[in-house]
Design brief:
- The complex is a heterodimer of chains A (176) and B (443).
- Chain A is mainly alpha-helical and 176 residues long.
- Helix content of chain A is 77%, strand content 0%.
- Chain A is globular.
- The N and C termini of chain A lie far apart (36 Å).
- The relative contact order of chain A is 0.15.
- Chain B has 443 residues and is an alpha+beta fold.
- Among the domains of chain B are: 54 residues, no CATH class; 155 residues, Thrombin, subunit H, CATH 2.40.10.
- A 6-stranded antiparallel β-barrel of chain B has the order 1-2-5-4-3-12. A 6-stranded antiparallel β-barrel of chain B has the order 6-7-8-11-10-9.
- In chain B, helix 4 packs across helix 5.
- Classes of the chains: A mainly alpha (176), B alpha+beta (443).
- Chains A and B meet through helix 2, helix 4, helix 5 and helix 6 of A and helix 2, helix 3, strand 1 and strand 2 of B.
Amino acid sequence: MSDFSERLLTGSRQHKGAPIQPFALVLVPLAAILFQVYVTHIFPLLDFLELPLLVTLHFSLRRRGPLSAVFYGCAIGLVQDSLSGNPLGMYGIVKTLVGYFAASVSQRFEVEHPASTVVLSFFFYFFHRFFYWVLARALLGQLVSFDPQQALIFGLLNAVVAIPFFHILDRLRETA
Amino acid sequence: MDSFLSRYRNLTVLLILIVAQLILLGYQVKTNQDIRLVRVWSVSAITPLARALESTRFHTFGVFEDYFVLLGIRENNRKLKDEVGRLKMQNQFLQTQLADADRGRALVAFQAQSPSKTLAARVIANGTGSNSAAVFIDRGSNSGVESGMAVVTPEGIVGKVIAAYPSASLVLLVTDPTFAAGVMSQKNHVGGTLKGQGHGNCIVDYIQNEQKLDVGEWFYTSGYDRVFPRGFPVGQVSVARAGRNGKEVYLTPSGLQGGVEEVLVVLEGVHQIIPENAPPSPVVHMMAPLPESPAGPADPTANELNTQADQIREAYKKIGQVENHEYGVSNSIPNYNLKLQQPQTAAAPKTATAPPTDASTAAPPRPQPGPSAPAAAPLPQAAQPVTTTIKTPSPAPKKPPAAEAPKKLRAPLLQTDPADADPSELESARPAAPKRPGEEKPQ
């Protein structure tokens, strides 16, 4: 077993969930949502960025607690829902699941490596988009389109952005 | 049981949260009601920050640009844009009125109709739905905005307000997949339902294959949805072809061309007649050039030296004659400082300083506004182009006197601005006309 593989499998058991300051718990998702509603208005090219999802992922992966991740994802999703024209609960359900699965993954694998960040961000972005589309069709009956190719490209871009973004959030956590 | 719950505690909480949100969703969908409190909290938390950021960005960049590049230009530009937008709306209204005037009903329609009462708003943020198209505007219920109000620009409709919060409102754009509005084509008045698709184009549903529709034809709001007043431009048909379940019509919405930054919320909509002509193009209209006639202009009054340019031209012409210089042929340069004996110089200032006399003789006498148009202010901005067009000497053959009758009807139209009229006085002066369908306040 290589050193990386060993760390990948056992690293999570050596770390416990790092504490995150309360103000960061509130301000970071707020800033992410503000980015999504405001900055994309100024720079429409950044519309592909799903920072609230990355914040949920970061919290779930670093905190390693499915219970807190579930509530955190649910709260962020509901705030996102309330700023959209859709009924409350669409983003809430999706981000609740993302938080749970991400935290579950973080309990079994080492997730602080940049490669893990890229893979998990890409996977969960695609999951997020696909599951939202399924919910919109199944629960709301909306005939919305889903472009897998676009979702894959955007997932890749979000995964790339996730590396520096997670780094910044880690630094924020350390300094806090 | 306790051991089971403690063992699967995470999964249990997850299931409870999912089921709770599903119930929440089901409640909202089934009752068609919103959980307004949560939305108000979120919007109240986010929109002030967005507004502050927008204000900071606007002022920061504005100060730098104003200081270093063009002092005051930004503010003037904004004012001029507002002015142009307002004039476009007035122009749209006046064009509708003038189209009716050609049929001899303009005066009645003018008294019966008044332009919609609108409120200017600025787009401050996007909505968060990945498949939806919605934006936030900086006007909310404190400014009188209500859910269900139409949002337009002078170019066309933009969307409708789906939620009004105290300081901001959420506007569903026409490109949203859940958006729908009643529309009607310009030529044959083919009715249909406009639906968004999530991207640039919209579709118009429920049009039979047998109905005639051309590419490039304009669609206007029909007013049947009771959200958009009738007569607002919607867009142009880009594709029209026969389909399995009816005609497939794709439409390019005109209100979203070039991005949406400033919009008008229709507070009190007034239905208008769908115009026979296409909506005014943003391109500036230019008249045809004057024909060059060797015998001189047909109008004898054109020989008079009305402007300073005419006087200079006449002076240069005389210098050329004195110095035997042919402009465009001779290579020498005439002496432009040559002092001439000017028999007409005394007359020139006289004519130059007498434009009011000229205008009063050229323009038809304007009738005084009677009691049928009370509290109406003059409309110099909109009136000038039309009256100028009427009084400008034209080389075109003169129309018979009967053909000039509609022009006379236009004069009183341009004396008053319907937007400034007091609705109560206008209502009292208005003849008892039958109430139009859908004239009620949009809901």
